[in-house]
Fold this sequence. Notes:
Elements: E1 12-15, H1 23-36, E2 40-42, H2 48-55, E3 62-67, H3 76-88, E4 93-97, H4 100-104, H5 110-121, E5 127-131, H6 139-151, E6 156-158, H7 171-183, E7 191-195, H8 201-209, E8 214-217
Parallel strand pairs: 1-2, 1-8, 2-3, 3-4, 4-5, 5-6, 6-7, 7-8
Amino acid sequence: MVMAEPFSMSATELAVVAPDATRADVAAAVARARELGCGSVCVPPTLVAAAFSFLEGDATPRLTTLAGFPSGKHVSLIKASEARWAVQQGAAEVAVVVDLAAAKAQGSSALISELMTVREAIPHPVMLTVIAESAALTEPELRAVVTASVKVGADCIATSTGFHPSGGASVEAVRIIADQLRELRAERSVWIKASGFAGDQQQAVDIIEAGATVISGAGLDGLT
Length: 224
């Protein structure tokens, strides 16, 4: 068996996004993320202020939250308001879930319009991540989401929420996203987040070699 090469835990994100997550869970996650050396910690919008206080002003791990999570079936202005509010509470990155119907309606302006509304609500230097729910999309649909994300100035594209029945992060989805970013000459400016990850070190190495910049998961126990 070929053993996985070591990789940096700074390329990981510890996600605490369960519906029943509490302040205590967030406090434990921040402590665990610091212990592991994670690059970021992701919490629900209602717990951003708590996470910010537990971080005590530290920029690392980066504080990430969500908008339109997990279904994406929210009005664009609601997603934008949720994102703006989270940044005001201390979030440095907001990951917005796309409306799958808009993502599947190739040629429609709905997806671009939605993402632009959120981007305008949280301008740089706040990071905007677009969650594509890749396992529920065809390859052309996924590529279209990547293209739309680049057009609106997104900083990162994530593979999944981890809540959709179609599945989470996959090597193939990361490869498609990476290939489309190369086509758009955006591979150096836009990250890829393998979200909903649940695997071991070898699987992490495989997904990073496919093009992932960040691995995000609820436990990350298989990586330690």
